[in-house]
Amino acid sequence: MSDKAKRAIGLKYDSSDKKNAPKVVSKGYGDLAQAIIDMAHETGVLVHEDPYLSEVLGNLDVGQDIPESLYFVIAELLAYSYVLQGKVPPGWEDVIKRIDFHA
């Protein structure tokens, strides 16, 4: 993908408020997209590259909740990011203790 076609969409999910969906907190194209990606890397935010997902999310405005049709996909990405970082989602501590990872 050329720099002019590069797109970045930043999402934020507040896990303390279960009623809220992830929101678009940043978005940009070209050089701005690269700046968003660079800042994410610098601050330890994981970056997922998916041209189809970014196309859908790119149609949303900053501050807008993701559509319900994307809840499952975004939930999987959030869960995977927790695993990659060695974290346990809030409230899942007891669930993790009951899982046999050696089965």
TrEMBL record:
Gene Ontology CC: plasma membrane
An example Gene Ontology biological process: protein secretion
Keyword hit for rRNA-binding: no
Record-linked InterPro entries: T3SS_substrate_exporter, T3SS_substrate_exporter_C
Superkingdom of the organism of origin: Bacteria
UniProt entry keywords in alphabetical sequence: Bacterial flagellum protein export, Cell projection, Cilium, Flagellum, Protein transport, Transport
Function comment: Required for formation of the rod structure in the basal body of the flagellar apparatus. Together with FliI and FliH, may constitute the export apparatus of flagellin.
Family affiliation: Belongs to the type III secretion exporter family.
Protein name from the UniProt record: Flagellar biosynthetic protein FlhB
